[in-house]
Design a protein that fits this description.
heterodimer; A: mainly alpha; Cytochrome C Oxidase, Chain A; two-stranded antiparallel ribbon; 17 helices; globular; disordered N terminus; B: mainly alpha; 0% strand; elongated
């Protein structure tokens, strides 16, 4: 031991480097390389593949629902065989419609919007961006993926129990979700599998968040100060903190729900409840308790889905605008503020629950306040591309699309944030249009932007830009055609969660529903272009150079795809921020983060 | 060398345990708020008299933290001496015995909790009997599960200690101790909640 002890950070780094060199050797067997891999890059790709399977499943479910909404009496070929009781003759019952809705929402929110932008891209990119050779806890990381995979299988198993999947929606409101078979088909085994699946999912995401936080805090390369971290890493870091808090609360909620269902406790079921002519054997529980616990998770979950998109867009736009992001510290501050505020607004999902109007106001105010950092982010993105010579690649186009749909969806949020207006709109298609834009499509555009941007690094091959641009243009048209009319439907009083609008005052909305269905099927079909591009580029795409976009962050200073330990046994030293664009550097109009420090007096 | 550092080294493992502590704290905060809401929501809350053995168990758990700290400090001293004198070969330290004692005390605590459950059951109080017993079982069972995690972590450290040439598991022991002490704090909190609210 030396007489002058090294500063804590340096000492920590030495330990880390020693430990990682000892532990981290490339695996040799097939299972260790491709299946139970400890490599964050493989795990990231596994998460993205899982999300792809999930998004295709969820999309097919939405087509079935949309088809039924447009043509309630027309039989869907094959449906009768898939769901003999609830889809007899190919025409779905309202219960089957609700089951599909539940599974669509659950699959999309948990297994697509959480896994792809956060766990998928975060796993692949974050360790390289901070200059680490892997996550802090590779074993936990592997467990995180496989636990999530098991959660997905448990959820899918709900399709195969006798009663089919539950019909209580992705929010699983009690007492409907808590009392078992009496509540309707799917509320028996299907609902139990749902609760089990989400509980397992929480464990997986907690392990993931733990890794993201420890890696960002402890494994940064020399010189990688917090303010030199790329915005995408900042976003994943903030998201992991949000996720840690959110899933720490959803897990207890799911455990209590499971106990209510299988052990006969009464956490969420009130006394004297008669359902299906049967007095339920429960007493004194609080259905509102579930809503509070669920939405304390549920609203931050919205930001778990969208913040990685913020980070991806903030990271990608400067690359193609060839100038630094406007207000880097403001951007980080805004993302952190959104993360904090996301925990103060959950009650705005519960304005109709009969809460005291005063508490409704209490939740309404922070809901309006949270739009301020979100709006500042939008202004920073627009300010960044303003006056720049933006390079129109598929990735940058999807970033522009992200800004567009986020603004479109965000503006309707202003209306819903006010209890008096929300009382009218809450149960209508206005809300469906709102959240599909602001968290669904916006997050998907973030995923697309990330895919087109990092694909060369992941697979060592370029994606086809022409196909990509066609994919972007048609998708943008498709999603606007699908979700914009829903706002008008909602204003006109078209309620949501109904399986058909044939025999009442909403009959007049039928033509618009048909249009939306056409648009949804069109948008879905357009995704085939993306799938073809994905598969073809993976096999036959042009070889990718190390740094095809002339970007600065560390992942572009290593080969495509990166070696097993990311940096080939070396430990990068970072001397620059992430946004050194538009000056003169040794390789062009940019300076890599890992480039040696410039001589004093010279600027990039 | 002027001072001997007995504090555990900082490491990702330690950061990880702190994050884990945050997670567990939050989830028990969620259970606690659920309990407060549940107490107000129905008229079926019945007071539950806690089994006396819980207090004995508390003493066992606190003692286990003490033995762990004694063991960890002895091991740190012996590792430092070993490094100075350059001794090689099989490592033996009385600290190991203290770690074993900690594990045994931890397992005795869990056995004591099982006795507490059985004595409640003997009075006809099961998981779904009334809301107070719901929360008693949920709190104590989840705490016991988390403590089993601590027992596993100590077991891992002991296995590493036996493995020759693997290097001193200083970070692992430091992280495991931090977690173990947190289990004490969590139990004291739960005991306070159980005695005052149930």
């Amino acid at each position: 031991m030396s007489d002058t002890p090294a500063p804590p950070a340096a000492r920590r780094r030495e330990t880390v480097e020693k430990v990682s060199a000892l532990k981290h050797k490339p695996p040799t067997g097939f299972l260790r390389t491709h299946v139970f891999s400890l490599d964050h890059k493989v795990i990231g790709k596994q998460y993205l593949d899982l999300a792809l399977v999930a998004v295709l499943t969820g999309m097919v479910l939405s087509w079935l629902m949309r088809f039924h909404l447009a043509y309630p009496d027309v039989a869907i070929p094959g449906l009768g065989r898939l769901a003999p009781t609830r889809g007899a003759g190919g025409v779905m019952t309202p219960e089957l419609y609700l089951s599909l809705m539940t599974m669509h929402g659950t699959i999309m929110v948990f297994f697509v919007l959480t896994t792809a932008p956060f766990a998928g891209f975060g796993n692949f990119v974050l360790p390289i961006q901070v200059g680490a050779e892997d996550m802090a806890f590779p074993r936990f990381n592997m467990m995180s993926f496989w636990v999530t995979c098991v959660a997905f299988l448990v959820l899918l198993a709900a399709f195969f129990v006798p009663d089919g999947p539950p019909l209580s929606g992705w929010t699983a409101y009690a007492p409907l979700s808590a009392i078992g078979k009496d509540a309707g088909p799917g509320q028996g085994g299907g609902q139990t599998l749902w609760a089990l699946s989400i509980a397992i999912f929480c464990v997986g995401q907690l392990l993931g968040s733990l890794n993201f936080i420890a890696t960002t805090l402890d494994l940064r390369a020399r010189g990688m100060s917090l303010m030199r971290m790329p915005y995408s890493t900042w976003a994943w870091f903030i998201t992991s903190v949000i996720g840690l808090i959110a899933f720490s609360v959803l897990l207890p909620a799911c455990i209590l729900l499971i106990l209510d269902r299988v052990a006969g406790t009464s956490f969420f079921v009130p006394a004297g409840l008669v359902v299906s002519d049967r007095l339920q054997p429960h007493s004194g529980g609080s259905p509102l308790l579930w809503q509070h616990l669920f939405w304390f998770f549920g609203h931050p979950e919205v930001y778990i889905a969208i913040l990685p998109g913020f980070g991806i867009v903030s990271h990608i736009l400067p690359v193609f605008a060839r100038k630094p992001l406007l207000g880097p510290k403001v951007a980080v501050g805004c993302m952190a503020a959104i993360g904090f505020l996301s925990y103060t607004v959950w009650g705005h999902h519960m304005f109709l629950s009969g809460m005291n109007p005063l508490s409704a106001t209490l939740f309404s105010v922070p809901t309006l306040i949270i739009t301020i950092p979100a709006t500042i982010m939008v202004l920073l993105w627009i300010g960044t591309i303003y006056g720049s010579r933006l390079r129109f690649t598929t990735a940058s186009l999807f970033c522009l699309g992200f800004v567009s749909v986020f603004v479109s969806g965000g503006i309707s949020g202003f209306f819903l944030a006010q209890p008096s207006i929300d009382t009218y709109l809450h149960g209508t298609y206005f809300v469906v249009g709102h959240f599909h834009f602001v968290m669904g499509v916006a997050a998907m555009f973030g995923i697309f932007a990330g895919t087109y941007f990092w694909f060369p690094k992941m697979y060592g091959r370029m994606m086809n830009e022409t196909l990509g641009k066609i994919h972007f243009t048609l998708t943008l048209i498709g999603v606007y055609a699908t979700f914009m009319p829903m706002h008008y439907l909602g204003l006109a009083g078209n309620v949501r969660r109904y399986s058909a609008f044939t025999d009442d005052y909403m009959k007049g909305s039928q033509p618009l529903h048909r249009f939306i269905t056409m648009a949804a099927l069109f948008t879905g079909a357009v995704q085939l272009i993306f799938l073809v591009n994905l598969v073809w580029s993976r096999l036959r795409g042009a070889k990718a150079p190390d740094n095809p976009w002339q970007a600065t962050s560390l992942e572009w200073s290593v080969p495509s795809p990166p070696p097993f330990d990311n940096f080939g046994g070396k430990h990068p030293v970072v001397a620059h921020g992430p946004d050194e664009y538009g000056g003169t550097g040794p390789e062009g109009d940019f300076v890599m983060q890992a480039a040696p420090a410039l001589a004093p007096g010279r600027t990039a | 060398m002027d001072t001997l550092r007995l504090s555990p080294p900082s490491s990702p493992a330690r950061t990880g345990v702190w994050i884990g502590i945050a997670t567990i704290t939050l989830s028990f905060a969620a259970y606690t708020s659920a309990m407060i809401v549940r107490q107000g929501s129905g008229a079926d809350w019945q007071h539950v008299v806690l089994p006396r053995i819980l207090y004995f168990n508390t003493v066992l758990l606190l003692a286990s933290s003490a033995t762990l700290e004694v063991g960890r400090r002895r091991l740190e001293v012996d590792w430092a001496l070993e490094a100075i004198e350059g001794r090689a070969g099989a490592f033996s330290s009385p600290g190991v015995v203290w770690l074993w004692a900690t594990m045994v005390l931890g397992l005795l605590f869990i056995a004591g909790q099982v006795i507490a459950w059985r004595s409640l059951a003997a009075h006809g109080l099961f998981l779904a009997s009334n809301p107070a017993s719901d929360f008693f079982y949920v709190f104590t069972a989840l705490h016991a599960l988390h403590l089993l995690g601590g027992v596993t972590a100590l077991g891992y450290v002991l296995v590493r200690l036996r493995a020759a040439g693997a290097g001193a598991p200083r970070t692992a022991l430091g992280a495991a101790s931090l977690y173990w002490h947190f289990m004490d704090v969590l139990w004291l909190y739960l005991l306070l909640v159980l005695t005052t609210r149930l």
